């Protein structure tokens, strides 16, 4: 068992509040990602879990054991760093075996564990090489093999793929998901790459300026963002935002009117939606939820500014009364730069946010 519980964690660095009253329960054997922009507190949170940083206030528990004051070497964790942290003068074999030797593991047991870990990461043919003779992906596999041999209950990974090229990152995402499934351990993963978090995680914690913004599954984070920050941070290309005024269209229908557009929708009514009627709001629409040349009545007419074919998709940068935004459409669409095209915001897919606070008006888990 390796449930990790953080209770009211706060961490100050001088006048800077890196983590602000964070409470979180990481379920045994889950893959949980700490996601957010640089400086949001995700690495600091990971370091407090590892025991590399002392909290200013708050507690950390592994299962029912308070480990807040327990040193890192006694926390039963394995950590993988962004920079790999390999010993350059040691062979791959010795890098993997180093921690085992420090704990006095018998030689024959060390050899078995190193060979097994190397085979699992497909680097058993590299055991005699030194780190300088390896590619970035191979070094990352060595760092993961070194973590595997620890047989720890909690794996802490701090942006381990950020130094790899795009193609290799895709491969290593798959490797990490496979490794998590095979080891059946608790993984806590730090990244600023929202695509990485959506692909790999059981649940995602979104942080900003040290505060918890939302905790949920990848589907919940993407489809039900709690506020405009999350909506704009998660998604590639990010969500488009339009200023407008919320109006009750009669009955259960609602609409938002803004510069050159009208968007009708019929959401489940919420108290926040009703309270914001006849007020200025932000309408959020993802690129894939904007229909270009729609069959039904359009929301607006927009001008094509940039055309970006990407093989499986065509991305259009559009302009509507001085506001530019992106739409994703079929790659065979015969649309060129300068065309004036009708568009439609899918009424069941739009998001609505309070323009002052950024909070969702349509209901979301927080």
Q: What overall form do the CA principal axes indicate? A: globular
As residue ranges, the low-confidence spans are none
Q: Share of helix among residues?
A: 10-25%
Total E-strand runs: 20
The count of helical stretches stands at 9
| Major β-sheet strand ordering | 6-7-8-3-9-10
- H and E string: EEEHEEEHHHEHEHEEHHEEEHEEEEEEE
How does this model look, in words?
With 366 residues, this protein is of the alpha+beta class. 24% of the residues lie in helices and 34% in strands. It has 9 helices and 20 strands. The chain has helices spanning 42-50, 92-102, 107-120, 136-148, 166-183, 194-200, 218-223, 228-233, 271-275, and strands spanning 4-13, 16-26, 31-35, 57-62, 65-66, 77-80, 154-158, 186-191, 203-208, 211-216, 240-250, 253-258, 261-265, 280-285, 290-292, 300-309, 314-320, 323-329, 340-345, 351-354. The strands form 4 sheets. Strands 6-7-8-3-9-10 form a 6-stranded mixed beta sheet, sandwiched between helices. The chain has a 5-stranded antiparallel beta sheet with strand order 13-12-11-14-20.
In short:
The protein is 24% helix and 34% strand. It is built from 9 helices and 20 strands. Helix 2 crosses helix 3, helix 2 runs parallel beside helix 4 and helix 3 packs across helix 4.
Give a topology summary:
Blueprint (H helix, E strand, L loop, with lengths): L3 E10 L2 E11 L4 E5 L6 H9 L6 E6 L2 E2 L10 E4 L11 H11 L4 H14 L15 H13 L5 E5 L7 H18 L2 E6 L2 H7 L2 E6 L2 E6 L1 H6 L4 H6 L6 E11 L2 E6 L2 E5 L5 H5 L4 E6 L4 E3 L7 E10 L4 E7 L2 E7 L10 E6 L5 E4 L12
Parallel strand pairs: 3-8, 3-9, 6-7, 7-8
Antiparallel strand pairs: 1-2, 1-4, 4-5, 9-10, 11-12, 11-14, 12-13, 14-20, 15-19, 16-17, 16-19, 17-18
Helix pairs in contact: 2-3, 2-4, 3-4
